[in-house]
Write a structure and sequence with these properties.
Layout: H1 3-13, H2 32-39, H3 43-51, H4 55-58, E1 64-69, H5 71-75, H6 81-85, H7 91-99, E2 102-104, H8 109-112, E3 116-120, E4 126-130, E5 136-137, E6 140-149, E7 152-157
Parallel strand pairs: 1-7
Antiparallel strand pairs: 1-2, 3-4, 4-5, 5-6, 6-7
Helix pairs in contact: 3-7
Domain FAS1: 29-161
Organism: Pontivivens ytuae
Keywords: Signal
């Protein structure tokens, strides 16, 4: 998904479904990108966001919920996967992977407690969210929930989500 389509998708989905309850919340402080940079465990994610041309979008007003894989999660991918995705020729594929980690709106872990849901990502595909025992997204576990940013929230996950 190119950057323009990402912007259109996030604008169109922000107020939908589960996300409406939190969509109007704001917080002072750094945005999602600056929060990820400051955390220092998202170097690969930040490099990927830059390579995909999504920095400006994720610094935008949002709100966004980002399921953010750690550097260790990226390192667990098969050898050569990250390097291949970061090549300029694969920018669209990289953007598809990254936007699969983003849900429009601001969704906190408490909003998911006790629920199992199918949630649309800005990629256009859905992720399975299970909040019945902690929070899981597809096969990833949220290891640190609710890192607040001025334009959304980050949930740290232990596995990179790959769209089908």
């Amino acid at each position: 998904m190119d950057r323009r389509r990402f912007l259109i998708a996030t604008a169109g989905l922000t107020g939908a479904g589960l996300l409406t309850g939190c969509a109007g919340m704001t917080a002072a402080g750094p945005d999602i990108v600056d929060t990820a940079i400051a955390a220092d465990d998202f170097n690969t994610l930040v490099a990927a966001v830059q390579a995909a041309g999504l920095v400006e979008t994720l610094k935008g007003p949002g709100p966004f919920t980002v399921f953010a894989p750690t550097d260790a999660a990226f390192a667990a991918l098969p050898a050569g996967t990250v390097e291949s995705l970061l090549e300029p020729a694969n920018q669209e594929q990289l953007a598809a992977v990254l936007t699969y980690h983003v849900v429009p709106g601001r969704v906190l872990a408490a909003d998911l407690a006790g629920q199992t849901l199918s949630v649309d990502t800005v990629n256009g595909q859905s992720v399975a969210v299970d909040g019945t025992s902690g929070v899981r997204v597809n096969n990833a576990t949220v290891v640190t929930p609710d890192i607040m940013a001025s334009n959304g929230v980050i949930h740290v996950i232990d596995t990179v989500l790959l769209p089908s």
